[in-house]
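Render this sequence as a predicted structure.
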Amino acid sequence: MSKQTMRNDFFVGKQIKFQSFGVKIGIEAEKILYLKKIYRLLEKTFPGGFEKVREKEIEYRFIIKSNKTEKGERFELFRNDEKVIEDAGGEFFFQMVESEVRLTVAEFAVSKVFLHAGVVAWKNQAIIIPAKSYSGKSTLVAELVKRGAVYYSDEYAVLDAAGNVQPFPKWLSLRGIIDPDTQLECSVESIGGIAGTKTIPVGMVLIAQYKKEKKIPKRWNPRRLSSGQAMMEILPHTVPIRNKPKFVLKVLNNLTSRAIIVKTVRGEAKDFANTLLNYFKIHTD
């Protein structure tokens, strides 16, 4: 199915309607142009595509309102009558809309737990790297992919009830290509990698704090964590913990009881990536 056909399928009047991970969403705007801008961003976030949804099934309805002011055109965004973005302008507003939609899917996904984490696969086992934004996880994921790891996500680890991980291969958000601060969205193919397509078990969870100029010893020996210690480290990165705590704890218990959990301080991603993969090979073969 072509992208143009996909657009025609999901655009209904001045509205986009779709579902992803069981979350049924509608986005309304006064101008088709606004919807097209958002759709182009969503295509990069959900490259696996969307599923159709009927009007009466929509659970989360986003409405974009605009006003002309002395500052130019300003926007507001409502989700189910609650104002979530106020007085924003320019292309940044549409990026914020995409972010709100993405977070809504992560928070309310059916029978899934979203962790804020980077994910790659090596020999059909996942390495999950939980981390906050602007912590260098996308850079580390990119370096692992350049060394042959299969790309799963630089944003979310999507776990099923058994604690296995499935792909969320959004375009990577990378800095340092133009300058240290400018962020570009890059397809995994553009850095020479491929995206995963199947659900796989988790071999390792890496809790890593980046420190500039940190040198990794030749014999890297990270701290191994118990299942309980791992749960405490991972919980702050778990998106739906407030909405479905029992399910989240069950999934995390399944994850941490089977995977290797290590904690460390790391240096530059390009120096650390080989060390991590070598350790993973030794301890998971």
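Summary. The chain has two domains: 3-108, 113-284. Helices lie at 3-10, 32-45, 90-108, 137-146, 227-234, 245-256, 269-284.
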